[in-house]
Amino acid sequence: MSEKAEVRQISSLTEGYEEQKPTFMQAIQEEISLPFPIDKFRFLIKELSVQQKRAIAHFLNFPIVFSKYKKFPDALFQKLLFQLQKHYLTSDRERLCWVIIFAVFDLLKNESPGSLETFLGTKEDHILKFGRWHVYWALRFHPGRTIERTSWEEAIREFEEGLEEKASEAKSPQDDRSNDEKQSAIEQKLKNEFAIRQAKEKEAQQLRKELGAQTKKLEQFEKEKQQLAAELLILKEEALKQKAEAEAYRNQLEARLNRMKQEKNDLQDLVKETELKVQEMKANAVKAAHEVEQWKQQHEKKGPGNTQELIALLLISLLPESDKLYHELRQANPENASVLRAQIRKIFDLIDLLEQFRQETGQAQPKDLVQVSDPSFEPVPSEPEASRQSCVGTFYRRDHGGYVVMEDGKSFNVTESMVHQHGLEHEAEVQCSPGKQQNGMTLYEIELLLQGDDTYAPIRQFDGYVELGNYFTWYCVDINNAQNRYPLHRRDIEIQQPNDGDPCLFNVADDGRFARLSRLYRKTKQSAAEQEFKAYKPSLLRRQAEKPKPDPFLENCKIVIVGGLRKWFEGVVAETGATLIHDSGDAPERIHADLSKADALFFLLTATSHRATWSCVEIAKQKQIPHFVIQGSKSNLRMLLWENRELITRKQKI
């Protein structure tokens, strides 16, 4: 019988057909209630074939792996069967009984409740054919055990006695002990293998869980890898695009830099040419002044009779100069035209004045010489007259030019070109000399007394270029930071008429939105005036934002300043928290008492007498007071106060 057939046969017995189930159920119920003869069951197992053992293992779901290349694991098979009979569950004991019935079914399949005597008569034949223990277990589960109870019990007893005698004859006690020891060793080995198997199964289960988790992580990593690969591809494309844009921008900047270098060389050549022209003009002015002085002396010697002759000679000498300037005007650039026209205008104004003077001399004798409008030919006023007319003022910077506020409260505007011509900085102190024109306007000549400090000017200055934007809107762009881009003021567009890409120097008020041109360096040749004053102020270029004033660092200190006016220094000293003691230098003895208690002494040598300097220095040396010299500007005074703050506050710390 095949292994699968045997499994189907035992399954049919357990699940049972109605005609077979009542045959054995009574015997099974009785055996379950009795102690199980484990030794006799062991002998039955030894008589089973390998196919029967495999069928039983499959039926009972034993965890046994079969291989045709290995021997059947009898020890493990017996151990699992013995464990099954030790269970207290009725279902497990019942299953074990069905397994025994399956093993001896060939002896019981044709038996009935009334065939017990026949079965006992053929006992010896069955023993020879099937085995002694097969016959024994078939007798125990015989259907006639209930009806012929007495005969069945007697047969069982005789059978067991005969089996014991033969077992004792066949085996010695030593063999039993040896078998027991082997059995114990086998059971111990089975226990160890079973424990190892359970540990391996747990480990395998844990590894399967970890494998599942790692598989999920690997899938997640694979998704992230694909996503990152896509992002990397996008970033590479963007990087290539940015690299191409940067390369194009760099080439553009290099081309612009080369263009600016060429323009710089052209501007330098123009500067040299303009300087030569200025020197020539100055020489001509000196020569003309010398000629006027000679004519004046000759007029004083010869008397008023020769006035008409002198005026005629002067007119003759001025006409060639005007012709020369007119010839230059016809060939000059539009940028130079305004300067040349102004010079020609001055010459013709002088000619008109001379003509007017000559007409008046025919009616009345002049008492004084006529004052001409050209400063080159103006007579030098006497010292009392100059001091009476001049006035001290303070210059304040704007985004385009600035204005001067004088001591008498009057003020006047200063153009951007005049700011560059005199090098004026914010809060500079100037000497203003007024003069009247024929049209009634008052013009001021400016002389710098004390330089200011553009660091605190209310404007920012940038070095950049002019750019034509959308909708014909002009912008000034910072060359160092293209984000600093401001619309150009309408007046600068109308007057300067810039071109796209022209380098320039432009100003922006702190609270302003528009840029004002301070210098415009055209791609063509520049005007002489622009080349003469092309230098700009580094302090304004460095100042990109409002510079915060420092906290007071000279509190409770006394600062003595000799020279100039008090108002020139009040703001600078007030920033430090110190007390100002000032003297113009006319009467230094008035501050000698305060000087002996002061913490520092400063001199403005350009506006201080030697007597005041000498007397104050002597006191400072005796009292060990540090003394310094102001180098002509407020920014220098700020720097001296800050850099020498520890030396000035030394007395306070003591």
Mean pLDDT: 78
User: In angstroms, what is the radius of gyration?
Assistant: 64 Å
Distance between the first and last residues' Cα: 123 Å
Query: How would you characterize the largest beta sheet?
Result: 5 strands, antiparallel
Organism: Paenibacillus elgii
Protein name: DUF2325 domain-containing protein
Keywords: Coiled coil
What distinguishing features does this structure have?
654 residues, single chain, alpha+beta, 5 domains, 25 helices, 13% strand
Question: What would you note in describing this structure?
Answer:
There is one protein chain. The protein has 654 residues and is an alpha+beta fold. The chain has 5 domains: 3-177, no CATH class; 303-366; 390-449, Beta Barrel (OB fold (Dihydrolipoamide Acetyltransferase, E2P)), CATH 2.40.50; 455-542, OB fold (Dihydrolipoamide Acetyltransferase, E2P) (Beta Barrel), CATH 2.40.50; 558-653, Response regulator (Rossmann fold). The protein has helices spanning 3-15, 21-33, 38-46, 50-60, 74-86, 90-103, 105-108, 116-121, 123-130, 132-140, 149-170, 173-302, 307-331, 334-361, 383-389, 416-422, 490-496, 528-532, 538-542, 566-576, 592-595, 610-622, 634-643, 645-648, 650-653, and strands at residues 391-397, 402-406, 411-414, 428-436, 442-450, 459-468, 474-478, 485-487, 503-509, 515-520, 558-562, 579-583, 600-603, 627-629. The strands form 3 sheets. Strands 3-2-1-4-5 form a 5-stranded antiparallel β-sheet. Strands 8-7-6-9-10 form a 5-stranded antiparallel β-sheet. A hairpin with a 5-residue loop joins strand 4 and strand 5. Helix 20 packs parallel to helix 23 (634-643). It is rod-shaped, with a radius of gyration of 64 Å.
